[in-house]
Write a structure and sequence with these properties.
589 residues, alpha+beta, Methylamine Dehydrogenase, Chain H, 4-stranded antiparallel beta sheet, 6 helices, 23% helix, flat
Length: 589
């Protein structure tokens, strides 16, 4: 016989969670101390214990997972067609349109949309809500806000082997994209597995580059075409020039032939203001400036050898590091060399010798940056060694203004596009300096530590508010400046004009004074040379012997003077000791 007992319980009563509740404490047992238990223990006297004043604490860091976004677009060509109609067939689409246009629903919809459109047009004719009434009033009152900057985004080199961000270029249309050229600047020390890629970044998405360029050699310069934002030109480490069309992907459209290219790395490429928008020119440390038309990259259209002697000798040429070209002055351009000399050139001269107009010498090392002031085109800035210098075309022998020597090497610089007295410099210690000559001339108005790595490049946007700085480890930091640094101050142009004119006049006066002193010294040296040759006839050996005798006679005379001085000093000391003893004897008597 099988005994079965069935336990019945509701399903809701088992597997339930524990419900805790608060209740007062209850005393269940109270054990009194037993004095006889103390005999089982041995008392330790004295008892030393250590105590810490602060609590023991532990630190733990947790990094959240990086959230990566990806932007995707849809190219919508034709839509709204039924499945049985092929939009590529013109006859089918025309037949379908005629059929739809005859329907009453279509006519009613068009009439309703027409009334809405008519209302918008009448409203816009009454008042234009998008009109800028104070667009010309650019100057505003100066604010008391201290100059400041903040980091907006950081674009990192995606490759494992980090390379230097050598050049930056903003998209010419609103600056929503940033092209960055990457290369290793250490001579013949590039790692074997180093990538040659350069990128275009979307400033709102730092997770993934918008486009990847695949050059044949690492890029030292990369520049947007201001007329066609889809075209970019790049200067390679092996001396070649290449260009890309972003509509065709990251592969180069055309590459210059290596036989007719530069022999050294191309440090700078600038687009020219031409009707076709396809002309550019490049500078390299091989001592040449080459002009190119990207429609025919087989050979350069024009060549200039940077020989200061104007002989066109490539062996005596100076290596170009930086270029300057202003579109409003299409015939003039300047080249900054690695010897610290700025060469001013005129492209429309007839002969190559006449193309080199003059030179400016003021730096002890390479000139990494060269740019005209956008408000005063006669004044330009050069950045090299430990200083930044402001020059005037009217004063060729020396700069009119300069910064004091910095502790770290200055690597790049540029003017503000919105304020005539503000410029920026980067240094090897990772610092960005903002200089405002109206506010302060001896020190930067703002010094910002961007990163711990050396900064090698910088580029400011056309609106003057955003700036990108490229570092040695491949990071490009996007900064936003305060409104005071990017807004034209009241009476600033007049102050800048007066300051530049005053400093130019001062340098002209000093140059004239130095010229007079040099002429006087030259005349004195010639007179002394003639008198020496007249007084000291004879052979070279006799003149050397005479000079030696004069030298030893001067030494003997100096020794005798020194002995006399020592003897007089000893006599004075003896006299003083004698009178001191005599005074002591009189006091005792």
């Amino acid at each position: 016989m099988e005994i079965v007992y069935i336990y019945t319980r509701k399903r809701s009563e088992f597997g339930r969670q524990c419900n805790f509740s608060d209740r007062p404490a209850e005393l269940h047992v109270d054990i009194l101390p037993d004095p006889f238990q103390a005999l089982n223990f041995i008392e330790k006297n004295p008892c030393d214990t250590t105590a810490q004043c602060s609590e023991d604490m532990s630190e733990h860091e947790v990094n959240t997972e990086r959230f990566e976004m990806e932007s995707r677009g849809i190219n919508h060509v034709e839509g709204g067609w039924p499945k049985d109609i092929n939009p590529q067939e013109v006859e089918q689409t025309i037949r379908f349109r005629k059929k739809v246009e005859k329907e009453e629903n279509y006519i009613n919809t068009i009439v309703q949309l027409g009334s809405v459109m008519e209302h918008c047009i009448r409203q816009n004719n009454a008042i234009n809500i998008y009109e800028e009434y104070f667009e010309e009033e650019a100057a505003v009152e100066g604010t008391d806000e201290a100059p400041s900057a903040k980091t907006i985004n950081i674009f990192r080199d995606p490759h494992e082997i980090k390379r230097t961000a050598t050049h930056l270029s903003w998209h010419p249309d609103r600056g929503k994209k940033l092209a960055v050229a990457y290369s290793s600047l250490e001579f013949q020390r590039a790692p074997k597995n180093m990538s040659y890629d350069s990128y275009i970044w979307d400033i709102e998405n730092a997770n993934k580059p918008d486009l990847v360029f695949k050059p044949a050699s690492p890029l030292l310069s990369l520049e947007y075409n201001p007329k066609d934002s889809h075209i970019l030109a790049g200067g390679c480490y092996n001396g070649q020039l290449t260009y890309w069309d972003t509509r065709k992907g990251g592969q180069a459209v055309e590459l210059s032939s290596i036989e007719h290219s530069h022999r050294d790395p191309v440090y700078k490429v600038i687009w020219l203001q031409s009707k076709t928008g396809t002309d550019c020119f490049s500078a390299s440390t091989d001592g040449q400036v080459l002009w190119w038309d990207i429609r025919k990259m087989s050979e350069p259209t024009e060549t200039l050898v940077l020989d200061p002697s104007k002989k066109g000798d490539l062996n005596n040429a100076l290596g170009g590091i930086s270029l300057e070209f202003e579109s409003s002055m299409p015939t003039k351009f300047m080249v900054g060399t690695e010897q610290g000399i700025v060469i001013a050139c005129n492209r429309k001269a007839k002969t190559p010798a006449e193309k080199i107009v003059c030179t400016y010498s003021g730096h002890h090392g390479p000139i990494y940056s060269l740019q005209r002031n956008p408000f005063f085109l006669k004044n330009f800035i050069t950045v090299g060694d430990w200083t930044a210098r402001i020059w005037s075309e009217d004063s060729r022998e020396s700069s009119i203004m300069w910064t004091k020597h910095q502790m770290a090497y200055v690597t790049d610089g540029c003017w503000s596009p919105t304020r005539p007295t503000v410029f920026f410099t980067t240094k090897m210690d990772g610092t960005l300096d903002v200089w405002d000559f109206v506010f302060k001339q001896s020190d930067p108005a703002l010094s910002l530590k961007v990163c711990d790595e050396p900064l090698y490049s910088l580029r400011i946007q056309d609106n003057g508010r955003y700036m990108a700085c490229g570092a040695k480890n491949g990071t490009a930091t996007l900064l936003e400046f305060s409104s005071g640094l990017c807004t034209l101050q009241r009476n600033e142009k007049n102050l800048a004009t007066a300051m530049f004119d005053r400093e130019t006049k001062r340098e002209k006066i000093l140059e004239a004074r130095h010229r007079e002193l040099r002429l006087k010294e030259r005349g004195k040296s010639e007179q002394s040379r003639q008198s020496d040759t007249a007084e000291k006839p004879g052979s070279v050996e006799e003149q050397i012997a005479t000079a030696e005798n004069d030298f030893f006679e001067i030494l003997e005379a100096e020794n005798k003077k020194r002995e006399k001085m020592l003897a007089k000093k000893k006599e004075a000391e003896l006299e003083k000791a004698y009178f001191d003893e005599k005074d002591e004897d009189e006091i005792e008597d």
